[in-house]
Amino acid sequence: MNLEGGPRPEVVITDTASYTDMVFGLFAILGYQFAPRIRDITDTRFWRTDPGADYGALNALAANRVSLDA
Asked: Across the chain, what does the average pLDDT equal?
């Protein structure tokens, strides 16, 4: 923690290769904003558990349904 190390970054951006919630916590403690870049975001799908539920602005996005029946 070199206080004379130059200007402090406001946002640190990285990928999500192996980060956990602890990294988010560490950044928050140090006063940084952790903004991971999600790899292959175009392949991501949003799912819903209740087809009748109102997801508001996410209704069109959460078009896939998860079956909770075992």
From this structure: 76
